[in-house]
Amino acid sequence: PLMMDEEEDDGETYKGGGASVIETSVDDDDEDWPEGQVERLHLDDFAEYIGGAVNGKPHGLGSLLYCRDPPDPQGRVEYSGEFRQGVRAGLGSMLWRDGTNFMGEWKRDRPNGFGFEAYPNGSFYQGTFKDDHRDGMGVYEFADGLYYAGGWRQGRRFGSGIATDPMQRKYVLSYDRNGKLLSKHMFWDADEEGSEQGERDVVAQVLKVTVQVRKVAEKARGVAADELRKRSNFEASGFNLAVKNPGARRLASANAEEQEESFKDGGRG
Fold it and tell me: What's the whole-model pTM score?
């Protein structure tokens, strides 16, 4: 594993990406999607959307499945949650093919705000995000239980933080704006004489953020589960696709079973 003062890059790269609608479905009055008519949309990155829609764009609650063949170039499998005018906004959960899973707040089609992100190597981060980068305050915990808790900027450690080493000793670390380690000294527990106010403040801020993250992530998980359930029920009801865009006729003329298979069963490598 990385040592406490080393930099790690999981989750730094923007993995989102919007897509415009190229076809829409017939209207449906299913009250599960109250913020607009229910539509099945095929998007220009070969993703399939089922959920609330307004003016031919995802809006409200819905789920988005990305194509398996050809595989999505950004490695996305599915997103379930809230949309605003065609982009992810609100609470939602995204799964990538490598096993990375983000649950939390979205804005401008990217993770923004409180979120929880789990990585395929067993590590996870819970804290604040800005444009799909860890930014603000948060905790990164490694699979072996070591952690860094403190400030972040554009995906890198920034400002003050507390980390553990393999001997379970705690240290106070300080980083510059580029993630370069500036200083390191032993951390004293809050009830010991050597503890400094600044160290106690870092702990308090991180705890406050993680409590909020857990609340947001739990809500996002619930929203995603509901949308996947509704998608399953919707598929079982035999939704009749009505293609309205000539450019999408190639999809419409394909064998129905083959077409459905191209949007299902996206796995992680």
Answer: 0.73
